Queue: 3 jobs
Job 1
Amino acid sequence: MTMQNSEGDVGAAAEKIRKGRTSLGIEFGSTRIKAVLIDDEYATLASGDHGWENHLENGLWTYSLDEVWSGLQSAYAALAADVKARYGERLTTTGAIGFSAMMHGYLAFDKDDNLLVPFRTWRNSNTHEAHERLSELFQYNIPERWSIAHLYQCILNHEAHVPQLAFFTTLSGYVHWHMTGRKVIGVGDASGMFPIDPATHSWDQGILAQFAGLPEVAEQPWRIADLLPEPLVAGAEAGTLTAEGAKLIDPTGVLNPGIPLAAPEGDAGTGMVATNSVRVRTGNVSAGTSIFATVVLDHRLERLHPEVDLVSTPAGDPAGMSHANNFTSDLNAWVNLFGEFSKAVGKPLDTADLYGTLFRMAIGTEADADAGGLINYCFYSGEFLAGLDEGRPVFARGPEADMNLANFMRAQLFGAFCPVKIGMDVMTHDEGVKIDSLVGHGGIFATPQVAQKILAAAFNTPIKVMSTAAEGGAWGMAVLADYLKHADTPLDKYLDERVFAGARSTTENPDPADVTGFEEYFATFRKALPIEQAAIQAIDLER
């Protein structure tokens, strides 16, 4: 699952590229659009990416649709250039393509396919009233991020665009629609739009009827069932790349149409695939701009828990998720600050060395188990798990705290993992959810041992990191694209026997001192949350 290096490997890879024995996965993450090309043995042949950032528009987090397409083209062009540089080949085709993206949010269109309001991302937490009303009505947690919460909040707010609505979807569903002309969505991503019936792997008909029966919904000129895309399980036929879609990916015209596309998925589903965590009682922690811990459930939860999202694997099996909106944004800002300092003193560090040096301090001998009394709140935006409608990053300490670099970095990492622990504790402590294995993935695990060791302390459970940990969702989506050719085999068996049969991994067991230190930090973190409320009141959201 690494890049091809030897002359023989390069020649064999070039042959696979020419013959289309490859799969392409493209994921729209919160800060990066990444494209990964894999071969039929799941080795990464080439990659490309494009950085982007959400921005506030009228107080709501968004990306423009122009950014979606220019970012896709930039990431793909970088991938194609990588293919050319490594193998001397023009990328004219692939065996299959799959698109994935950050889940949830609200992309709403009228009957002429015009966007009605700017894309509202998962990061927005202006939907609390909708969350509370729908969760109570359905007795099923409808998080603030979910697409149906966004729609219902628009109805409650009497937004002018609502009667014009003809279709709404997620970012992955939107991109796939323009690639194939089909309004479909992978069942995992669908489960972040509206509740899924685990028996049918489609929208829960009873809950659809409950929503349709609300007086304020019944008076609309549309039916909710007509607005939603069609959910598809992994391996289902989901359309082929049209000529228009090929031009949207590659305006140079080198990429040919006609390529099969996998059902578009969310980043939770691609995270499950990338960590081989689709089997019951397996779980993964996907860490990026946001962080979520997902466990495939062995039993139905007994009670409604606002801290736990009920979602689906790409195969349609039920899973519980603790999702925190905030993870690396504040951490990255601090690391960038230290990077500026290294440049200022004439000793600049590359990104890997910078992160590696700082992260290793957090588990070094100079770090106290509880981070020395330092506290960091990484709340760049609102955080439901912490009861925050908005966020303000805050670093705090008492006058007797042990302020050194090791404790500072430990506080950064501890604070980043605290919000997701709230929902995970509900599943494991309150509902007795059993976990056979928990796998971490995402760029934060690229520095060996550090984040893995701290996560083991946070959850008090062994954490495995696989050789694919840094590949993340784009690689997972490429695997789902390849699965189109193997859909006669159950997804969990396909992953076990084909994709991960020879995968390398490392496991970090929880250190008792680290577990105690994290629990002490976590108790202070929760006790001192009023600091956040005060910061929200005192500091304007926009400069």
Note: The mean pLDDT is 94.
Job 2
Amino acid sequence: MENSGFPVIGSRQAAKAPHESAIPLAGSREEPLVDIADSYLPLDEDQTAAPIADPTAVEPGRSLALADFAPPALGAGDRLVRLAYRMGLPASAIHPFRKRAKTRLTATVTPPLPGDPAAGKALRAGHFLVHGFKSPIADTAFSGPRLPPPFERMVHGFRWLRDLESGGTRAQCTQVAERILATWLKANPKPNPTPAWDVGNVGHRLLNWMIHAPLVLSGQDRGFRSRMLHTIEDTARWLDRHVAKADDRLGEVAGWCAIVATGLLMADGKPRRLYGEAGLVRALGELVSDDGGVLSRSPLCQIEAIELLVSLRACYDAIRSEPLPQIGTMLNLLVPPLLALLHGDGGLGNWQGAGAIEADRIEELVRATGVRTRPLRDARQWGYQRATAGKAVLQFDAGPPPVARHARDGCASTLAFEFSHGPDRLIVNCGGAAFAGGLIPLRLEQGLRATAAHSTLTIDDFNSTAVLINGRLGSGVSEVEVDRRTLSADGNGPGATRIEASHNGYVGRYGLTHRRILILRDDGSELRGEDLLVPAGRKGKRGTIGVALRFHLGPHIELATSADGKGVTLALPDGSLWQFRSGRDAVSVEESLWADGQGRPLATRQLVVTAKVPRSGESFSWLLKKMR
């Protein structure tokens, strides 16, 4: 890749490289986007672009306080107990003179997170409700690998218990919970190599049994209650031995959280708790990048990690014990990157397979953490850039995709962006790959993860990173260069935030680097962009290639095209008007879809700029401007 003097974030370095200072670095250069844009703008004679000059004002980087994720300090006796338990010695060997306690729960947890009342009522009516799709409980295959991934996580992780608890009174819900639980136990009498015994699912299942124990242990059948208590103990022992075999780090964290929770709440659980706390701290230290983003780069995984820690902290509260300090430290790291992906409506952006999860759910989650902080604007390691101006919010994927071992529903979205103004989303990504199997058909899952499902540039309809099955990603983007600056203006005009990034995903096939420059004016009324294809490597540069720039639109936007075909007027639901202008090629309007927070696919449209360009490189300039 051409050396432009920018810091390079590689796919492996993105997880562990130390945080780099804000730039520009000495010797970096400014691209002439402002001059180019001014040459084909303004959009009408009365409108002139504000002068943007003097890019010497540099946005400060965010300092990180590195947390200590060493195992908790213990006395000699507790260290010996932990060592003995890790070696597999039974409780009778650790405390040979103590009478073994009866298998029982010693405390009841107050659930820290509310469920979905609609899903709870559906459960009482005999249906699982997953991402807007109702599936009869009686027709659910509780064993074998036949469930869509969202249903697997819901059914085998018993995540539906939270919804059920929110869907009625304790008396109304207990019988439903016991009936589903009995069916599941009958279908899964012992561990087997199916998704039911995936470490992540087992961790969630055991943790949910602990938190919602009154739903599964309050029935009148004493025999069932005794069987359930022994199932909890057997599951915890299985997890003790297999937690390190999780598919990814987040699944391992779920397993460790369940082990610690069981040690906290079950009688004679101290050895397990000590063992689990040491493992949890190690796993947490490897869960996130230096700026607090999980290694999968998925906001859904970010939410899951926060939910796990909030739930575990509630187990400490149940026994009036001080939680591990690393739990609070990790929550303080996890929340700011999640906030960075929120739009003006308070909902989540559509990144790495996520849908636009509503503001209410995000607010409840953040409130449960007790963390008060601001969004992280410049997450170099997690890979997302955020810029705000007036009512405008810009989100930019300026990082390589997650490596295969961390990816969940991984998407080839490098250099895609989303843009909102107030409560309205103008430019979005399709999203929803993680919800496929609900209202979004499974057959669309691969397509929703493709580069073309994101607001960025594609060459010959190839993905910038190969999209494989089971949410994994193949070869493609391995390095992303990022340069972020604050531009000050001459005179009384507004300044701007300028973000430039490039990736090498098309170098191997075409010998071209994709570089994107975005400039957001400080009043939020204008977003200028330039996409460049820059020669790199030794590939031949003869012939032509097909290029498409896609700008997926938010829902409920009315469109009108200009007479010259290079402009499109966007009428937003609030009555405001925006105009999109292409600098050199015509703009076409095509069908698209957008996944909302309930996993529902909403029909929408996309603006597409297509061209045949030489393999020697080309540039495309465009503008999105508020007219009224």
Note: The two ends are 42 Å apart (CA to CA).
Job 3
Amino acid sequence: MTVFPPASTEPVPVPEVAVPPVPGVATPETTSTLPELAGPEPAPVVIDAAAPTPLALLDRDRSILAFNERVFHWARREDVPLLERLRYLCIVSSNLDEFFEVRAAPHLAGALADGDKPGESTATFEKLADAAHELVARQYALYNDALIPAFAANGIHLLSHGARNHAQRKWVRDYFNREVAPLLVPIGLDPAHPFPQVANKSLNFIVRLQGTDAFGRENEIAILKVPRVLPRIIRLPAEVARGRASFVMLSSVIRAHMGELFPGRQMTEFSQFRVTRHSDLAVDEDEVINLRTALRRGLTLRHYGQAVRLEVSSGCSQHLLDFLQKQFRLPDAALYRVHGPVNLVRLMQLVDLVNDPALLYSRWTPVQPTGLRSGVSIFSQLRERDVLIHQPFESFDGVVDFLREAVHDPQVLAIKQTIYRTGSESVMIDLLTEAVRLGKEVTAVVELKARFDEEANINWAEALESVGAQVVYGVVGLKTHAKMLLVTRREGGRLRRYGHLSTGNYNARTARLYTDISHLTADAALTADMDAVFAHLASQNQLPRLKRLWLAPFELQDQLVARIEATAAAARAGQDTRIVVKMNALTDERLIRALIAAGSDGVRIDLIVRGACMLPAQQPGATENIRVRSVIGRFLEHSRVFYFRTGDADELYLSSADWMTRNMLRRVELAWPVRDPALRQRIIDECLVAYLGDSRDAWTLDADGRYRCTEPAPDGGHAAQAALMDRYRMPGRRRERAA
């Protein structure tokens, strides 16, 4: 059992060893403990019986925007390398794009339905839009007032047309004529040439013209769509850059020469514009015969869904603006005038084009998994003990090696794997394909509805089917989000299973960017449960009673509520209790209400929630015993860890699921226990204690619903991710852990 001392921002004292201390995290010679809640001893909260109204929860969409504010903070931090600040700025823009693509349509529809009599829907939409407008304005202010001058100070120049000298202008003209103009087709609007279909998030120009066209007509509006195949940032060659890193934006190149596309006409006004469309695929699975075919058909329409946001250059005239708003049927609140490129996401290209190590984070190379011995069969090691891999501090290669050994082991008979997000290039899929060719039975549960990965997954499904793998698409109406890999091997006269469970995806690229826990095991009960789940997903037969796994949508939510309620009952009985949960989002009302009730009964609760959180923490008379914190760092926090303690007993679970209603009721998700004392302590050390002790990159949710950045200690404070990187890069520590 883990013992919890009073909270402290100081690291727990440790003997002198060659391991950088993490706040509260054990070294090989110590056992770490979870810090307690600050403040007085928790006690049952007295709630006025005359006021039975449930505590109002926080708004989910505002919470999502608040998360992006925390990411934006990293773009503002001057201690972050310059190109990394730009990267964070681009990440915020990418997140906002997805927010509008997925979350904005219902709010907009409600506002439009209100018509000329604005009601609650209009007020909600406008309030949300105000928060988004404020964040976008701050983004462009940072870009123009801080990042662009900082680029120049470091010899990086994004040259506008007015800033280019004669030689540079000549080169840009030649580039335009050679590479750009042949791909541009301006469309003059008239009854025979209606407003063209403008794809989601594409770059376009609207132009107002004087004079008449070739037929003597005065059609004054033209639309110019910019092909996506063109790079958005172009590096000037050395002969005209004068020894500097000089770049031009594609939009600037086109603006400088756009008049040449309209010979005989005079441009009087023009503006960039970009429209964001609702892009969440909706397929009635009960009405389709082949889900894969239906989704592929839907992908062709995704780029032309309902318009939800319009971005234009800040100098766009009211005449052109009125024309665009009427065309896309958008209210003023959905309009964004921006002081710069209408798509900041494309500035990510600049990071790769400059690629100056002095302006980037020092390269992080994940270490070999400390629980695996090189040169020794992974199967034989798993027969001795389970193995955890903490990504990205440890390498995802350990998981790939597990699959590779299974593929080439003649005693392995069958491999089963779920596929949610593997990326467009995947060594895992290549290995599954090789396994089929080597005569092994391969079953792949491919989730075709993984948002924005549908096309890649359809392609993988077809590729695996083409070589003879058994491909299934899970259960109609549910997304298969569970991450499982199961290997069946003949050993002597019996079959033995080996499994991999993970909080994250089978994606080698994101495994270097996301924090996740991989669990390799030969535990007979756990792997038998995994086999039963695979059989259930393939056959859709009745699921047998599972011994170790909790499976959504059947029992995961019920089991979590039961654990919370059991902890609350123990607190009422005067026992020492604790709940610590790390996840990416907390929006499920049933789980939130259970946590609030447990906190009212005196349970100490710490919630480490990276993104959206609807639980109002630190509310007088209701949630004083609940703390919510969010840690934003170099890596994207992605692991899900659930810890419950009642008296002398404690349990720890890993999971693929966040505490969201969709995860509990509309997805196939897994949670599983970690029972090995050493592995459980390691997870507590590295995934819970380290983050509760973070005093540099953490934010706390206050009673007013706002997040407050943790004030660093005089010595700069402790950052969980940085401390874990220090810990894993120490060779002595790795040798001791592996031993």
Note: The CA atoms of residues 430 and 464 lie 9 Å apart.
